[in-house]
Automatic annotation (TrEMBL):
It holds the Pfam family Transposase_1. This is Mos1 transposase HTH domain-containing protein. It comes from the Eukaryota. Residues 12-60 form the Mos1 transposase HTH domain. PANTHER family: MARINER MOS1 TRANSPOSASE-LIKE PROTEIN. GO terms for molecular function: nucleic acid binding. InterPro entries: Mos1_HTH, RNaseH_sf, Transposase-MT_Hybrid, Transposase_1.
Length: 343
């Protein structure tokens, strides 16, 4: 069954109804009760009904608002909608100033309009028009890369992630009303961490490593990692198939030496637009899940981190890896549909 449509009366409609009920010989209390019954939270205040009934008793049947010194006029719902939608970041106090009304009146008006305050999500980058166009073009190209998406079974993707030794996260605690929650140690400004590199596909993880402390990814180091990955793939379900390779645009990934090495592998390197973690399976799927699993974990040594990661990777079912890769076409299509904006 379809829900009944929601009708939000404007101020002129309210005045017509008050006049109709007045002419029907209804008293102020009866008018109020009837309007609350019909309009619920959108019914006018009793003082508003009284003011209009007083005018009608004086044979003033004009429904236009008269200017009154020292009293704000009724809130113009249509004007409020226009003001809010022109700048949705305004506070109720700011809206009240613009509308020449009270805080409570604006608050009720926002409720009548169905407006609620929500925090915008964080996005990784403010995309320029050129960025948007590149994301659309590359996504459209990937959607038409082949007549079907069977090639996703041969796609390998890689990325890096910092793993913290101490993973404290402050969360709300259920406590008695007269009790205080336990204190949570604040994360250090420069916490101890180690860099994880991982290569995976629908078949699971093919190779991963933790970099030595103090080591950073350079083009030469990344190339040495790729050689190890290529060796691992020879004993994987991908052996004998043309590999499609997806990585981001970090400098070591796009360096001339890296490109030259990949050319000797005869892999198909897929286009990946800059500033697009929402199109990188490691970011939107693997690392987001890993981050949640790491909450509350404390490590003392690199070997403890390695032990935890091995257990984490081994715990994932085949469906987990396949879902992360096979969701790519949907994300590419969403980027095209949204004109390049983040998924």
């Amino acid at each position: 069954m379809n829900a009944a449509p929601i009708f939000v009366p404007d101020r002129l409609h309210i005045r017509h109804v008050i006049l109709f009920l007045f002419l029907s010989n209804s008293k102020i209390t009866e008018i109020e009760e009837r309007m609350v019954e019909v309009y619920k939270d959108n019914a006018p205040q009793r003082q508003t009904i009284s003011r209009w009934v007083h005018r009608f008793k004086n044979n003033d049947f004009s429904l236009a608002e008269k200017a009154r010194s020292g009293r704000p006029v009724e809130l113009d719902i249509d004007k409020l909608r226009e003001v809010v939608e022109s700048d949705p970041f305004q506070s109720i106090r700011e809206l009240a100033t613009v509308m020449g009304s009270t805080h409570s009146a604006v608050e009720r008006g926002l409720g009548a309009l169905g407006k609620v305050k929500k925090m915008g999500r964080w996005i990784p980058h403010k995309l320029s028009n050129f960025d948007l166009e590149r994301r659309v073009d590359m996504s459209r190209h990937l959607l038409t890369h082949h007549p079907n998406f069977n090639w996703l079974n041969h796609l390998v993707t890689s990325d890096e992630k910092w793993v913290l030794y101490e993973n404290h996260h402050r969360r709300a605690q259920w406590v008695d009303a007269d009790k205080q929650p336990e204190d949570v140690v604040k994360q250090e400004l420069h916490p101890k961490k180690i860099l994880l590199s991982v290569w995976w596909s629908v078949h699971g993880v093919h190779y991963w490593e933790l970099l030595p402390e103090g080591k950073t990814i350079t083009a030469d180091y990344y190339s040495s990692q790729l050689q190890k990955v290529k060796s691992k793939l020879k004993t994987s379900p991908l052996h004998g198939h043309r590999v499609h390779y997806l990585h981001d645009n970090a400098r070591p990934h796009t360096a001339k030496t890296t490109k030259s090495l990949l050319a000797t592998f005869h892999w198909t390197v897929l286009a990946h637009p800059p500033y697009s973690p929402d199109l990188a399976p490691s970011d939107y799927h693997l690392f987001s899940d890993m981050h949640r699993s790491l909450e509350g974990q404390d490590f003392k040594t690199k070997s403890e981190v390695e032990k935890w990661l091995k257990k984490y990777f081994d715990s994932k079912q085949p469906e987990f890896w396949r879902k992360g890769i096979e969701s790519l076409p949907t994300k590419w299509q969403t980027v095209v549909d949204k004109g390049g904006h983040y998924v």
